[in-house]
Every structure is written in C-alpha cells, then in structure tokens.
Amino acid sequence: MARGARPSARLLLLSLGLVLLYFSSGSSVGVADAQKTWCVAKPSASNDILSLNLNYACSQVSCAVIQKGGPCYYPDNLVSRAAVAMNLYYAANGRHPWNCYFNNSALVVQSDPSYGSCTYY
Q1: In total, how many domains does the chain have?
Q2: What is the extent of the structural domain holding 72?
Q3: Residue 116 lies in a domain
Q4: Does residue 15 sit within a domain?
Q5: Which of 47, 49, 85, 113 has the fewest other C-beta atoms within 10 Å?
Q6: Distance between CA atoms of residues 1 and 25, nearest Å
C-alpha cells in the first residue's frame, strides 16, 4: 500500500473479522490476560465535575465503601471519594475505556491506586 493511501473497506472488514475470531475462539491469550486497569479522577478536574461524577456513579453502583465507617471513607475529600466511586462504576461496567470518560475528567491507570484498607477493585 502506498504511503498515505487509505486501506480498502475489504481489508478493514477482514482485519475486524480476524480480531473478532481471535477473541471469540477461546484463545489462551486475550482480554482476560490484559493488565488490570483502574479509573481515577484527573487532578485537574473541577469540584463541580467531581461532584457530578460522584453522584452519577453512586446512582449506578453501591458506594458503601466511601460512606462513614467504610474502608475508603478517609481521606475525607471530594477527589478521593469521586475517584473511588468512578472506579466502582468503571469496574462494574466492564473496565472499558468509555466507562472511565466522565466528561473527560478521569484517567485509566495501570498502577493500583489502593491505599491502606481501601481496595480499588
């Protein structure tokens, strides 16, 4: 294929078909073997957005771990609570990148953000 040339629709469909076949064939290497990821709040996210994210995530999943007495209650701040809630939502919905978008206020990370008794799942 010449540099800058666009691939044909047939080539794209063939590639997509091979990818789908690979993942549906029960291959020993696949999505389950991918490195685990977590969803956390971007440091630059505003408190207003984090508050919306927290309310939305907790309307979809149980946020008991960030309630008073829960293992993720401390530190008692919006960024920490929103990050835990956003990750709970992300994990409950399949860990897809689109489940960690939150209006571009979140990041998918490969380092476990768990701390103390607070485990990010």
Answers
A1: 1
A2: 43-109
A3: no
A4: no
A5: 47
A6: 30
Residue 92 lies in a domain: yes
Question: pLDDT 10s per residue in the chain (121 long)?
Answer: 455 545 544 444 444 443 333 333 343 444 444 589 999 999 999 999 999 999 999 999 999 999 999 999 999 999 999 999 999 999 999 999 999 999 999 999 999 999 999 999 9
Q: Tokens 């029960």 label which residue?
A: 26
Query: For residue 80, is it within any domain?
Result: yes
Length of the chain (residues): 121
CA 121, CA 55: separation in Å to the nearest integer?
A: 19
Angle at which helices 78-92 and 47-60 cross, to 10°: 40
Angle formed at CA 86 by CA 84 and CA 43, multiple of 5 degrees: 80
